[in-house]
Amino acid sequence: MRFILPLLLLLGLAPAQAAGIAIVINSGDATLSIIDMAQGTELRRIPVLREPHHVALSPDGRDLLVGDAGGNEMLFLNPQTGEVKRRLPMADPYHLAFSPNGKWLVVTGLARNQVDVYDAGTMTLSKRFPLSSMPSHVAYAPDSSLAYVTLQGTNKVAALDLRRQAVVWTAEVGSTPAGIMWLNGKLLVANMGTDHFAVVDPVDGRVEQRIRTGRGAHQLFLSPDGKTLWVNNRVDGTTVSLDARTLAITRTYRVPGGPDCIDFAPDGKLWITQRFIQKVGVLDPASGALQSFPVGRSPHGIFLTTGAPAAVAAR
Fold it and tell me: What is the C-alpha separation between 47 and 96, in angstroms, rounded?
């Protein structure tokens, strides 16, 4: 490491400064990479069963859930260290998200064409929705009354009433919808088969507007201060920042290798999985500088735990 730091400085790139660990989900080789954020080095890899993809922090902050879709298993990790605490059999957990009120955990089964609603307190299955086809990502209404799921195979979004546990509507929104988010009273849906995200009325699924960000618009993320919307475009290899209020594009950053998921570090940098090139990138939005560190094959989800000592994380 003593040779890497001077080289980064010589190239005009300061090493990542945030203290803590990054947990990177490597879908292609069934592992989790534990990264020392301050040094940009991999501390260790944790094997899982087959094909993990996404993560969600439990409402009490005690568990980081990782869905192993191919292995039909949910892992519960210590978010401070990456240690696997327990494993729970679960059918095809691809994408997962807790409701804002902490009552529900909605899990999409992309391969099995199903969406499962779990009681978050007991992890018991409350309702299974058969949805065609390829249910992908989840978002919620702020009051936790509705969950919205993108259906990649039919170019639609489905709205699920969690109180009545019924499908309220399905509506076509664009080609191969993936990421979805509630923002300013609307649904934003990234249409991976095109170059835009759609602004959708959450009442009936009507598309009100389409905003171009780049080919392969895949995922959307809101900055911690709520001021900036970030969109990753996997085909173009770009990450785009937009004003969260007006949805006007403010800057486009080059992030090669299929940028996918983002998490935000306290120092203002974005940690972005580069899915096609086995790396995780650290983007400084102020300067546009990008550092990339090697991880496992097809890195997908990512979670940052700041302040975790590297010595603890390496155990």
Answer: 20
